[in-house]
Description:
Bound molecules: oxa(dethia)-CoA
Strand content: 15-25%
Strand order of the largest sheet: 1-7-6-4-5
Largest sheet: 5 strands, mixed
Structural class: alpha/beta
Radius of gyration: 19 Å
Low-confidence stretches: none
Amino acid sequence: xxxxxxxxxxxxxxxxxxxxxxxxxxxxxxxxxxxxxxxxxxxxxxxxxxxxxxxxxxxxxxxxxxxxxxxxxxxxxxxxxxxxxxxxxxxxxxxxxxxxxxxxxxxxxxxxxxxxxxxxxxxxxxxxxxxxxxxxxxxxxxxxxxxxxxxxxxxxxxxxxxxxxxxxxxxxxxxxxxxxxxxxxxxxxxxxxxxxxxxxxxxxxxxxxxxxxxxxxxxxxxxxxxxxxxxxxxxxxxxxxxxxxxxxxxxxxxxxxxxxxxxxxxxxxxxxxxxxxxxxxxxxxxxxxxxxxxxxxxxxxxxxxxxxxxxxxxxxxxxxxxxxxxxxxxxxxxxx
Length: 336
Ligand code: UT7
C-alpha cells in the first residue's frame, strides 16, 4: 500500500507587492533583488488581519478537497505546517479543523519552517502506510507580511518573503505504481540561530519587552534574522544530498526524474542545484519570481502550479526538497 496525492490546491492573497513598491518603503532596488534572488514580486496579505495564516490554509484546503473529489468528512487527520501561526498557541491545525467544520479529528502542527511541508508530508506518509489514517489533509501556509521589518533595517530579509498557502490530500492507494517512494528529514540544531526569530520565546526576555516600558528590544530578535551567506552555503550542499538520498532509498535513477520542485528560497539556489545535478531547465520548477519565498507553503504552491500548467502528469517521477531554518532539510520522492 502507498500514500498518493489525491488532490492539491493553492491560494495566494490578491495584493501584489512589486520590487518597485518596496523601493518606496526602504533603501532597496529592483536590480539588487532580482540579481540576488530572482524575485520580481510577491503577495502580501498586509497587516489588517483579514486573512490570517489559517484562513490562507483553509482557502488552499478547500481547493485540494475539491480537486481530490472527496467529501471533506473523509479527511481523518490534519497536519499543518507554518512558522507564522495565527496564535502563539494553539497552532493552526485546530483552527483549520474548525473552519472546515470537520468532526473531532486530530490536528498536528509542524514547526519546521522552510522544511515544514517536507516534514508534514513525510509524517502523513508514515501515518497512511501504518494504516492509522486514510486521508490526511497536509497544509503549508504562511502570512509573513504581518511580521516583517519593512524599513531599510530589515531589507536583507523582508524583500524575500511572501504570503500564501498550499494543500494536498494524501490518501491510501493499492496502486503500487504511484505514490510516495521515499522520504528523508534532517536537522542540525547548532545552527538554530543563523535563521530565526527570537520573539515570542523564553530565551530573549519577551516578558521584559511586554512589561517594561524602558526595555530596548534587540531588533534581530523581534524580526526574523538570517545570516544569508551562511544559510546559502549550507543550502546548496544539503539540497542535493537530500535529493540523492531519496533516489538511493527508493532504488530509482535520477535519469528518470521528470521534475524537481525545490523549496523556493532563492532562484540562485535552485539554479545552483540544477547545475550541480546536471538537470535540464524543464526538470526544475521555479515560481519564486511571482511569489517570493513562502516558506512552508512554497512546495505545495509550486507543485500545484506545475500540475495545473500540465508540466506534471500521473505517473511522473517527482522530487520535492527543502532546506531552511533549524537548520532542517529533507526530501520526498514520489510518482504522481
Ligand atoms: O528559505 C529559507 C532559507 N533561506 C535561504 O536559503 C536564503 C539564503 N541566502 C540568500 O538567499 C542570500 O544570502 C540573500 C538573498 C539573503 C542575500 O544575498 P547576498 O548576496 O548573500 O547579500 P548579502 O547579505 O551579503 O548583502 C550584500 C550587500 C550588503 O551591503 P554591503 O555590506 O556589501 O555594503 C547588504 O547590506 O547588499 C546589501 N543588502 C541590500 N541592498 C539592497 C542587503 N539587502 C539588501 C536589499 N537591497 N534588499
